[in-house]
Amino acid sequence: MRSLFITGATGFIGRSLLSSLDLRAYEIVYCLARRPLQPFKHSFRSENVQFVTGSLEQPETWAPLLTPATTVVHLAAATGKTAPERYFSVNTKGTESLLSACRKANSKNFLYVSSIAAKFPDKRRYPYARSKELAEEAVKRSGIRYTIIRPTVVIGRDAPLWQGLLRLARQPIILLPGDGRTRIQPIYIDDLVACLGSILDENIFADETFEVGGPEAIAIEDFIGAVHARMSGKRPKVIHVPLKPMLSLLGLLEPGLRHVLPVTAGQLSAFYQDGTIEPNRLFRRHSATMKRIPEMLNLVLNDE
Ligand SMILES: NC(=O)c1ccc[n+]([C@@H]2O[C@H](COP(=O)([O-])OP(=O)(O)OC[C@H]3O[C@@H](n4cnc5c(N)ncnc54)[C@H](OP(=O)(O)O)[C@@H]3O)[C@@H](O)[C@H]2O)c1
Predict the structure, then answer these.
(1) Ligand 1 atom nearest to 36, measured from its CA
(2) Tens digit of pLDDT for each residue in 1-49?
(3) CA 263 distance to own-chain centroid
(4) Which residues, in sequence order, are CB contacts of 249 under 8 Å at separation 6+?
(5) CATH hierarchy code of domain 2-152+188-214+278-290
(6) Averaged over 56-74, what is the pLDDT?
(7) How far is the CA of 7 from the centre of ligand 1 (A)?
(8) Where do the structural domains in the chain lie, given as residue ranges?
(9) Rounded to two decimals, what is the model's pTM?
(10) pLDDT, tens digit, 9 for 90 and up, residues 244-287
(11) Which of 15-29, 128-142, 183-197 has the lowest mean pLDDT?
């Protein structure tokens, strides 16, 4: 009987994944988190779900749980705004520790949730993207059977990224970094989780990387405009803010003031580097049933 070891199970994607999986297919499902959320933990009374408190940087707390029958789903990551070195210690070194423990335990399958940002051509100011790219490289050379998923921006009520876009779209006059033409391909959380579920259910571990986005790509200005129009009933007034000076200013301020800045230079990457996917067999299989942008907005904006 198989076992599952999920890192980042208490995060935005992890919570959704855990709710949608057929847990009976596994003898035991371990969920690693630094702080298991109590109400969330209690909603999983399934006898075979076990929360393990620990961090990726402390393999001694979780490595003994890995066996040859374990499939690992690696979602844990430093996301949002944090010090650059934290991205590398959690996302790159943490992934390397997990891979090393899997090798020792002879665990067979490794599902790594990376990010579309890993393929951005310019990662100089975006340590998160670079840390994910380095983690992907570690997965590929690990010798463990893997699947890497690179999600685009994931839309769901609790998604921090979505909340950021929503704050921007709510403004009566929108100060939009860049020319607004950069393309994004948002995916609804349930659709991403369906892709992850099918990889696990069908044991798709053939050392492949799949970029996964929703069925439609859209210019970021049109997306923000659609959100604004849904909330106010009219098109927004948009002022384009040149990116170069913004990036330089953020570069200067970030070292001391990162925690109070609304955005980092890295996070602005989405305004000048396309976050769209190369179609692939996983995407083609799921795209027909995925939610299109108006449907996603209906789901997340209902009570706004
Ligand atoms: N959301 C998106 O739009 C999006 C898009 C592309 C890719 N991704 C990727 O998808 C994955 C999940 O994203 P998410 O949105 O669910 O992120 P999230 O809500 O920020 O959750 C991150 C998870 O990682 C755990 N974690 C962080 N540092 C850890 C550490 N040192 N040791 C152990 N666990 C740690 C957190 O646990 P604690 O709460 O206990 O700290 C939490 O469960 C990430 O790898 C992210 O890069 C997300």
Answers:
(1) 40
(2) 799 999 999 999 999 999 999 888 999 999 998 887 665 666 666 778 9
(3) 18
(4) none
(5) 3.40.50.720
(6) 97
(7) 8
(8) 2-152+188-214+278-290
(9) 0.96
(10) 999 999 989 998 898 888 889 999 999 999 999 999 999 999 99
(11) 15-29
Q: Which residues line ligand 1 (CB under 6 A)?
A: 7-8, 10-14, 32-35, 55-57, 75-79, 90, 94, 113, 115, 151, 153-154, 159, 161
- The whole-angstrom separation of Cα 38 and Cα 44 is 10
Ligand 1 pocket: which of 5, 10, 13, 154 to mutate (most atoms <8 Å of CB)? 13
Could you write out the three-class secondary structure of 247-274? HHHHHHHHHHHHHHCCCCCCHHHHHCCC
Q: Atom 15 (ligand 1): residue with closest C-alpha? A: 12
Whose alpha carbon is nearest atom 26 of ligand 1? 76
Ligand 1 atom having least distance to the Cα of 13: 16
Q: 190 falls in which pLDDT band (50, 70, 90)?
A: very high
How close is the Cα of 106 to the center of ligand 1, in Å?
25
For 182: left if phi > 0, alpha if psi spans -120 to 50, otherwise beta; the answer is beta
User: Any idea what DSSP says for residue 186?
Assistant: -
